[in-house]
Structure formats: structure tokens, C-alpha cells
Specification:
The structure is a single chain. By secondary structure, the chain is mostly beta strands. It is built from no helices and 11 strands. About 30% of the residues are buried.
Length: about 120
Amino acid sequence: VQLEESGGGSVQAGGSLKLSCVTSNLTASWPVMAWFRQAPGKEREGIAAINSWKTTSYADSVKGRFTISQPIAKKTLTLQMNNLKPEDTAVYYCAATPDYYSHPPRSANYYGYWGQGIQVTVSS
């Protein structure tokens, strides 16, 4: 397992959660990392990405509510989720690539390393 997520759970609408992602490979370096999510019956969606220069990219569905960061550059990843909505309910995945992109992509095709996913449930 290269990446491991934590911090998921259940929360009421309007609440907050913070997801974290750490790598089990101490020699790995991830200049670009991202968060994806997949709701039941829907395709996996790239919601936020960041590169080692702290350039970020957000999906419109989460812009202004979610914040992605790399507390330890190229090693760890977090996603602060505020004002959560029931439609944010999904399994959330951390993803990483050893390749650098000046505009961090949100397409799954760019990422070769994935966590196992963690459930986030938002009730109304």
C-alpha cells in the first residue's frame, strides 16, 4: 500500500471533516497529488489537485468549500471540507504521481498510485 487515507466518517449537512493521506513508502516523492471521490452509481470525480509549488485546481462542485494542501511537500496530503452537503457523500481517494505538472490535473489518467478510499457520509 503506497497511500493511506484517514479522517472520513459521518457528519450532518453544514459540518466539516478533514481528510489526510500519508505514504507508506518513505522514499517516495509525489510532486503532484489529488483527491478523487466516487458516489454510488457515478464515475470517479477529481475534485482537487495540488503540485509541489502549491498550485491548486478544484472542481466547481467543491470550489470555495474544500481546501487541498500538502503539509509535508511531496509526502502528505490533506483535504479540509467545510459546509458539507449530502451530495458530497462518496468514497474519497487520495492519488499521487511522481511526474510534475505545472497545472495539477484532475483526470484519473494522470495518477498511477491510489489509496484504498475512505467513506464520507453527509446526512441532511
